[in-house]
Model the fold of this input.
Amino acid sequence: TQLLEQSPQFLSIQEGENLTVYCNSSSVFSSLQWYRQEPGEGPVLLVTVVTGGEVKKLKRLTFQFGDARKDSSLHITAAQPGDTGLYLCAGYSGAGSYQLTFGKGTKLSVIP
Amino acid sequence: DTGVSQDPRHKITKRGQNVTFRCDPISEHNRLYWYRQTLGQGPEFLTYFQNEAQLEKSRLLSDRFSAERPKGSFSTLEIQRTEQGDSAMYLCASSLTPPPEAFFGQGTRLTVV
Done:
């Protein structure tokens, strides 16, 4: 069974601080997705990374896929209260895979 | 809005009742997925369709769970004889073939009392 471990589980920071959250596995994934989920809502796709070593930027968010495609990180610069939410990573195990495996998420609170 | 749409958003039911949820995927997406999310966990895969064919259903939680996608467009998820342990958020997602991008709906929050 492929598992995705996310750390930290909880993170509370002040507005304007930087932060990094991690998504790790012992297994290789063909792609990884990052989602943000707010209470009572479905996950919203932020980014997909496919190539080992790939870096993608989305405004203040920087996503990196590890060279071996077993891990990923999300870095947020100058966090804002609107960044508050549950950040989930999810991956497909192979090119023909149909099933996303999710981590448990990192719950981020940005205090004004 | 052309995103994934789920109905109802919330459902409260008594133990032992049957419930049915509906999902309308993004119109050009031929794959449709159902996931379940319980408190403190990430979504858990249940089943998926490619067009009208249900290609994977072994992950449905029990034989009380069933899903259909009769015309390859919208889908329904039915839970018969609900139990308190069925209380969860039920999420629908859709994608093109092949993935990777899967887009989720807002979910149906089921509470069994």
